[in-house]
Design goal:
Distance between the termini of chain B: 12 Å
Largest interface: A-B, 45 and 45 residues
Order of helices and strands of chain B: EHEEEHEEEEEEE
Distance between the termini of chain A: 42 Å
Number of domains of chain B: 2
Strand order of the largest sheet of chain B: 2-3-4-5
Largest sheet of chain B: 4 strands, antiparallel
CATH topology of the largest domain in chain B: Rieske Iron-sulfur Protein
Number of strands of chain A: 40
Radius of gyration of chain A: 23 Å
Structural class of chain B: mainly beta
Strand content of chain B: 15-25%
Shape of chain A: globular
Strand content of chain A: 35-45%
Radius of gyration of chain B: 19 Å
Strand order of the largest sheet of chain A: 1-34-35-36-37
CATH architecture of the largest domain in chain B: 3-layer Sandwich
CATH superfamily of the largest domain in chain B: Rieske [2Fe-2S] iron-sulphur domain
Largest sheet of chain A: 5 strands, mixed
Structural class of chain A: mainly beta
Oligomer: heterodimer
CATH class of the largest domain in chain B: Mainly Beta
Chain lengths: 570, 195
């Protein structure tokens, strides 16, 4: 009897705490176009992809007093890669295994939890999720196994479910959706399984498909001349990261990944739109323009991250720009033209890259050193390795410093030799077996992971942080407080740096490696920094390879997800 | 909670605190509906043959002579000899057979082996990816997603990578040069996860 009474009391307390969360503020086009500084309404903070918070309560002078105010165990292992999305007191985080949790962003009380139920036989190359998108009174999340789900933001109840991707042929989803004018835009993963990539939009209210744009043109469509025969049907070009959006021109910029199989001689041609950025009409998904970073990809260098929308100066002119530290190791400055076309401005290597022989100054098209192109029965080494100068973790732009901040990895190379693999639907089909993926580090390397700060107008590197004992798999958050926040190292640290100088100002040892983007928000006059710790997927796999190469390299970083929320000590 | 394939569509899986309590009560009182498995989905059992699941001999019985001594392995599905049904309706039925030196097998492994041939589930215990690759230096079976390695001489125990447990072994004998299953998998297939 006593037990029952206690249970009732606990239940009442829990209901009371859930009820204490304020009413839900609907998310509108206007709010998304101009998000309030105290919220974090989308993955990279704004449509331009800046990963920048205008809050400055936490700043270079007081960040040393930053302390955890609450934490929350997610109950999941594998790689946690989603930022907290915050809307007036509600926080939404996602985890591996198709989980979404809504929390009171001030207290950490759980409001609801959604657990997607995937098919038993689904296999996950990347058991992860990169976050939710918001619109009106709903929360949108992509399931690994291919469903897009709309949840009621206040209760977590399913409003609608739409199947986007067919997991049986290797299509799956990990990205956060992008909300654009009442539509929920998503792209698929699966470039290692011989998919034909696509980006698609769904009506936010009903889940009805509004448009679907393949990232490889069908015969007869513009760009189809860059493919041979039927190669386009299984040509890869997955679109596995969230795009950015230009409100002024109603243009979505979305990145496209590697070609499939990995070896270019098995699919001669430029292979549009692999390794490209696409410019899509925000209403129809029609392709308005593109820029291909490297043609006939043979290095598994996905260019899946959309460039940041940043205006910069060149030759006395302000350019409506795009800036992208590319996986191929070059930092690209591009131009957003009014008709949707993408112009080339400049590119220079930001890590050691030995594949490009030259870059055409007008078009940005590279030429290659032939001995650096792996092929079928032709082994070749190349730098950087297939994980690139950076992988998907987000760079950031701080308008107060005029600098971008790149989580880079240097001094690693790869070698590959292709073979013809029999295509089996849903199975690995890259032309090389996992044990034969060559990965090396430079013998005399003194560091691997980096943070690089570049002046966008001068086109010059200003400062660099070097990690001698880790790669950097952490997304960057920069703030108006003059700070850069970054995890990403296998030692479980989360750090803050002076955005102008790169001086480290604060650090804390967390529960696991941090490979999720940090976010910042403010409630009741208190600024918070929040980030999920939870090591897994590619950083974990790469760590195993490094441990075989470098004596003393730690073999593993502990798994298990925990959300950390920090504020200044009072 | 009584999850079946058919229930997945439109699953109302949000669990608030009150729903969690109510849901648990309902689940305790209700038996999950079990859909009848298609003939090609059942798990292998004694008497089944193994047939190549890909390559030029796809569908043909897997013979010891098909397997290169010392690896790599070959993929196969079980086949019901009475009906000729290949049990490829479930990817969890796919196995990988490797031909090794019988003397190199552990005693436990040898119990399910024949003429040095060992057969294991080709589904990784980490994220259920295909284990269909071979490391020629370590002489191990390799997962095609995250590179976990399994020692085929020792019950396919994990020797590298994130996989939490070994692969299930499918015991076999050799009859007329081809492999015949002698019993069910000796362990669980696939990954342990909530969803």
């Amino acid at each position: 009897m006593i037990m029952i009474q206690r249970s009732l009391l606990v239940a009442a307390a829990l209901l009371a705490s859930a009820a204490s969360v304020q009413a839900y503020t609907p998310v509108t086009d206007a709010r998304l176009a101009n998000p309030e500084p105290h919220n974090w309404l989308m993955t990279r903070g704004n449509y331009k992809g800046w990963s920048y918070s205008p809050l400055d309560q936490i700043n270079v002078n007081n960040v040393k007093n930053l302390v955890p105010v609450w934490t929350f165990a997610t109950g999941k292992r594998s790689g946690h890669q989603s930022p907290p999305i915050v809307n007036d007191g509600y926080m939404f985080i996602t985890q591996p295994d198709n989980q979404v949790i809504a929390l009171d962003a001030r207290t950490g009380e759980e409001i609801w939890r959604f657990q997607g139920q995937g098919p038993e036989e689904f296999s996950a190359l990347h058991n992860t999720n990169r976050g939710v998108s918001l619109y009106d009174d709903k929360v949108y999340v992509a399931m690994l196994y291919g469903d897009l789900v709309a949840l009621d933001a206040k209760t977590g109840k399913v409003v609608w479910t739409t199947t986007v991707a067919n997991w049986k042929v290797g299509e799956y989803m990990t990205m956060a959706p992008l909300t654009v004018k009442g539509k929920i835009v998503v792209g698929i993963s699966g470039g290692e399984f011989g998919v034909r990539g696509f980006i698609a939009a769904y009506d936010a209210k009903t889940g009805q498909q509004a448009w679907k744009t393949y990232t490889i043109p069908a015969p007869g469509e513009p760009g189809s001349e860059t493919w041979r025969g039927d190669d386009w049907k299984r040509g890869g070009a997955a679109a596995w990261m969230t795009g950015n959006y230009d409100v002024e021109t109603n243009t979505i910029y979305w990145g496209v990944g590697n070609a499939s199989p990995w070896f270019g001689d098995q699919r001669p041609g430029d292979n549009l739109y692999t390794a490209s950025t696409l410019a899509l009409d925000g209403d129809t998904g029609k392709i308005k323009g593109h820029f291909q970073y490297h043609w006939n990809d043979s290095w598994d260098w996905d260019e899946m991250n959309a460039p940041m929308l940043v205006d910069f100066q060149r030759d006395g002119r302000t350019i409506r720009g795009l800036i992208k530290p590319s996986r191929n190791g070059y930092l690209h400055w591009l131009e957003r033209l009014q008709n949707g076309a993408i112009g080339f401005v400049d590119a220079k290597p930001y890590v050691y890259q030995d594949v490009f022989a030259s870059i055409d100054p007008k078009t940005g098209r590279p030429t290659y050193h032939p001995d650096k192109i792996p092929g079928t029965g032709k082994k070749a080494s190349f730098c950087p390795s297939l994980w690139g100068g950076k992988d998907w973790p987000f760079e950031a732009y701080n308008p107060k410093t005029g600098m971008i901040y790149i989580p880079a990895n240097d001094n690693h190379c790869g070698f590959l030799e292709g073979k013809v693999q029999e295509y089996v639907a849903g199975k690995w089909w890259t032309g090389v077996d996992i044990p034969d993926i060559g990965f090396t580090v430079k013998k005399d390397a003194k560091s691997f992971g980096e943070i690089q700060a570049w002046d966008i107008n001068a086109g010059k590197k200003v400062w660099t942080v070097l990690y001698s004992n880790s790669m950097n798999w952490g997304s960057i958050l920069t703030t108006a407080g003059g700070l850069v926040f970054n995890g990403g190292t296998q030692d479980r640290m989360f750090r803050a740096y002076d955005a102008r100088t790169g001086e480290q100002l604060w650090q804390i040892k967390t529960s696991s490696g941090i490979i999720a983007p940090p976010a910042s928000y403010m409630i009741d006059g208190v600024q918070y920094i929040a980030v999920q710790a939870g090591w897994g997927v590619d950083p974990q796999f790469q760590q195993g390879l490094l441990a075989n190469l470098i004596p003393g390299w730690p073999k593993a970083t502990t798994e298990g997800g925990v959300l950390w929320v920090f504020a200044l000590q009072r | 909670m009584g999850e079946t394939q058919g229930e997945r569509e439109g699953c109302g899986c949000a669990v608030g605190r009150r729903e969690l309590v109510l849901g648990a009560a309902v689940a305790l009182g209700a038996l999950p509906a079990v859909a009848a498995a298609a003939a090609n989905e059942r798990r292998p059992k004694a008497g089944d043959l193994l047939v190549h699941s890909m390559g030029p001999k796809k569908g043909q019985p897997l013979a010891v002579e098909d397997l290169p001594p010392g690896g790599p392995g070959l993929l196969a599905f079980p086949m019901d000899p009475a009906t000729g049904t290949v049990l490829d309706g479930s990817r969890f039925n796919e196995v990988i057979a490797v031909r090794l030196d019988a003397a190199a097998l552990s005693e436990e492994t040898r119990k399910g082996a024949a003429d040095g041939v060992v057969v294991y589930s080709a589904i990784c215990s980490h994220e259920a990816c295909p284990v269909n690759m071979w490391n020629d230096h370590e002489h191990t079976l390799v997962c095609s997603c995250h590179g976990s390695m399994f020692d085929p001489r020792a019950k396919a125990k994990v020797v590298f990578g994130p996989a939490p447990r070994r692969l299930a072994q499918l015991p076999v004998k050799v009859e007329g040069g081809v492999l015949v299953v002698t019993g069910p998998f000796d362990g669980r297939i696939g990954a342990v996860r909530a969803a």
